[in-house]
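Section handout 9: paired folding examples.
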Amino acid sequence: MIVSLTIILLCQLLGEVVARGLGWPLPGPVLGMLFLLVFLSLRDRIRTKIPEFGRALDSTGKGLLAHLSLLFIPASVGVVQRLDVVAEYGVGLAVALVVSTFVTLVMTVVTFVVVSRLSGSSMEAGEEGRARD
């Protein structure tokens, strides 16, 4: 588990170093996730030589996901500490939250439709199959 957490944190650190070092307007943790994605895509090639490689990373990731709600506590405390900012900009924050949620939902639907068309599966085929049953 320690090795897996080290790999995850090293990917985040690498992302921070690259983002700050090159002056990119992209958050370091986002680049870190991309580095972790590349690492995970190479995992199967490495696993042929080292069979145990990657299993601990899977269990550590599942453990982090199981306790993901605990990671929101510091952000919540930060919001409570800055209630003056929330009071001043609350309406704008609420509008931004609603609009960004709506845009995210629309983009998710568009992405799903595009991917389903590119992969050759369609929702109509699934509906026809259910209609026959």
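Moving on to protein 2 of 2.
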Amino acid sequence: MPTVHFRGREIECDRGDVLRDVLRAAGEPPHNGHSSWFNCRGGGSCGTCAVRVRGPVTYRTKKERRRLRFPPHDSGSGLRLACQTVVLGDLWVEKYPGFWGQRVEADESETGDAQDAEDAQDAGDAQGPTG
């Protein structure tokens, strides 16, 4: 059973759970401030659930890659959308400042091997959540 480490807590979940759902069920939404009320509810279109994730997860979905290419996000930041990220093992998750959680320090930004080779050229599109 994977453990998600977030904001000083250890949250157990099942392999295959969507990260956003895991965090919200534990009372730890992946949003900052008012974005807890003003978001797309897991649709992958608003970008307010952007987090840094370390550990095994699915590849980025097309929808996620598209959203993270537009401001205020930066496709090279290494962030993930919690609503599009499926837990595959133990994770360490960090939320950055800003309405969208986009304020990653320049030295903390990582390309993730060119976004994992642009996420294996869409190979994981069918692996991610549907919505």
